[in-house]
Design goal:
Blueprint lengths: L34 H30 L3 H25 L7 E3 L4 H8 L10 H28 L2 H6 L4 H13 L6 H4 L3 H21 L4 H6 L1 H18 L8 H7 L6 H4 L18 H28 L7 H21 L5 E3 L1 H10 L4 H16 L1 H8 L3 H20 L10 H28 L9 H8 L5 H13 L7 H6 L2 H4 L9 H7 L13
Antiparallel strand pairs: 1-2
Helix pairs in contact: 1-2, 1-3, 1-16, 2-14, 2-16, 3-13, 4-13, 4-14, 6-13, 6-18, 6-19, 6-21, 8-10, 8-18, 13-14, 13-15, 13-20, 13-21, 15-18, 16-17, 19-21
Length: 531
């Protein structure tokens, strides 16, 4: 080298620095978008949560003996209660932009109640439907006490204070990835509708913002509305054009836009009210089984809350806020039991994924969506129009949203030491078992018609089979146990598991960012201290 100087030292590539708050979010919890945009985004959240709201009653109500009229009323009730619970959660619970809606976790226990022999002596199908509904209501009312007590007493705070980024990764990841069975298998039920929806959604949300620069925020924020309208019109043209005439009944139910029967059966105006099906009935065994389903929902919702806080660009959730959110989710299950929604309540994973797709984590947007839920639940005919969207279109949306939530869980690896064999073992073993154990339970149930635990006591069977059929529950509990028992007190291991990143957020008091995100409105913190 001329001049005799030393050769320049090569610049070493630097790893991406960890971020306590997710960057590149357009609107965080406390920064609402302009009103017109917020209303459209809120309506988009309403469309997304309709999938679970319609699919679960459409599956359960016919088994209970109900027809289209009962199905429409149950969907209206579930929608109404979801709106109330979403408002309560965003105002007084976790304060996160989390939609609280129906949950698949409660379905196996509900089916077990439906198949109970004591209802077989009722010949009138509508009366049988009401009797089963009242039994489900009673079990949900009792089951709600679990989350109410654990949340408001602070017991769940004492559990979650031992969470670390390492133990959160399997939990949050499988909250999203564990729902793979509701993704492409649902798309394939009518592939000529579902696959175009999936391809169009990916193209509009991921490619169009880079192709047409001027409309960047239109395509990434409103991709769901744009693509659903296009494919819905296409599906309707196939229906009126006779593409499904003479096809199998299963194909027609999945593909046609006029097979739901909800529009004709739904009343023009109806306000759901508590005990509309009669006084709840109670059975001790069914109540215990539903309490276990409630506990599984509690664990999964803990992961979903953490995902929502991440996508809303909030600081890591303090344990006290998680506990408060769980308490209000218990209230949500109580309202589900009082009103008779045929299903419990938990955090909507698909709406958490929508936060990531739009990059809008505003609390106001989700509160507006709750307004849409209540409005369309009362105006039944208008709400039934949107509820008739074919299920494969909804399943295509799930493919993106569940993937986003799963990837959100993986993002917590940035706080962990991936060169540690302890980290590799806990991460790999918990995720593998979280996939393998439920696969065995679900496969066994599909082949035999009952779970591996099959005794004369149905409630005991559900207590064992339901939690071990949940990917997120198995992986989360296993990771939590291993992370807190394997050489936890070593100071180097504390850094390996990423605990030092979260300890400063153990209490939201004293941190201006956390106080802004999680403090209760109307100066209620002084009356209801969170820590």
């Amino acid at each position: 080298m001329s001049g005799g100087g030393a050769p320049a030292k090569a610049v070493e590539p630097q790893p991406h620095p960890p971020k306590e708050q997710l960057p590149n979010i357009s609107y965080c919890i406390t920064s609402p978008p302009p009103w017109p945009e917020a209303i459209l985004l809120g309506f988009q959240h309403y469309l997304v949560m309709l999938g679970t709201t319609v699919i679960i009653p459409s599956s359960l109500v016919p088994q209970m003996g109900g027809g289209n009229e009962e199905k429409a009323k149950v969907i209206q009730t579930l929608l109404f209660v979801a709106g109330l619970n979403t408002l309560l959660q965003s105002l007084f619970g976790s304060r996160l932009p989390a939609v609280i809606g129906g949950s698949y976790i409660f379905v196996p226990t509900t089916i077990s109640i439906i198949l109970a022999g004591r209802f077989s002596d009722t010949s009138d199908p509508v009366e049988r439907f009401k009797r089963i509904m009242r039994a489900i209501q009673g079990s949900l009312i009792v089951a709600s006490t679990l989350q109410i007590v654990l949340g408001f007493s602070g017991l769940w705070r004492n559990v979650t204070r031992f969470l670390s980024p390492l133990s959160v990764v399997p939990l949050v990841s499988l909250v999203g990835f564990g729902l793979y069975e509701f993704g492409f298998p649902g798309v394939a039920k009518c592939v000529e509708i579902g696959l175009p929806q999936l391809i169009l959604l990916v193209f509009v949300s991921q490619y169009m913002p880079h192709v047409i620069k001027s409309g960047k925020h239109v395509f990434d924020r409103f991709a769901v509305i744009i693509t659903v309208v296009i494919v819905w019109i296409y599906a309707h043209l196939l229906t009126v054009g006779g593409a499904y005439n003479g096809k199998a009944q299963k194909t027609q139910l999945s593909c046609r836009t006029d097979r739901a029967g909800l529009i004709d059966a739904a009343p023009w105006i109806r306000v759901p009210y508590p005990f509309q099906w009669g006084a709840p009935s109670f059975d001790a065994g069914e109540a215990f089984a539903m309490m276990m389903a409630s506990f599984v929902a509690l664990v999964e919702s803990t992961g979903a809350f953490i995902a929502v806080s991440r996508f809303a660009s909030a600081t890591p959730m303090p344990p006290s806020i998680l506990s408060r959110g769980v308490g209000w989710q218990g209230v949500a299950i109580l309202l589900s039991g009082l009103f008779g929604t045929v299903n419990g309540s938990s955090v909507s994973v698909e709406n958490a994924g929508l936060l990531a797709l739009t990059r809008v984590g505003s609390r106001r947007v989700v509160q507006i969506s709750a307004g849409f839920m209540i409005f369309f639940s009362i105006l039944g005919k208008f709400g039934a129009v949107f509820a008739s969207i074919p299920a494969p279109i909804i399943a295509a949306l799930y493919c993106l949203f569940f993937a986003y939530v799963g990837a959100g869980g993986l993002s917590f690896l940035q706080f962990c030491n991936l060169n540690s064999f302890r980290t590799k073992f806990i991460l790999g073993f918990s995720v593998f078992m979280g996939l393998s154990v439920p696969q065995y339970f679900n496969e066994y149930t599909a082949i035999n018609g009952y779970g591996p635990v099959h005794t004369g006591a149905r409630w005991f069977n559900d207590i064992v089979n339901v939690p071990l059929s949940s990917e997120a529950f198995v992986a989360g509990c296993l990771a939590y146990f291993l992370d807190n028992t394997l050489h936890r007190k070593d100071s180097a291991i504390r850094k390996d598991r990423g605990k030092h990143w979260w300890d400063k957020f153990r209490s939201f008091k004293g941190d201006s960012r956390s106080e802004e995100f999680y403090s209760l409105p109307f100066n209620l913190n002084k009356y209801f201290p969170s820590v």
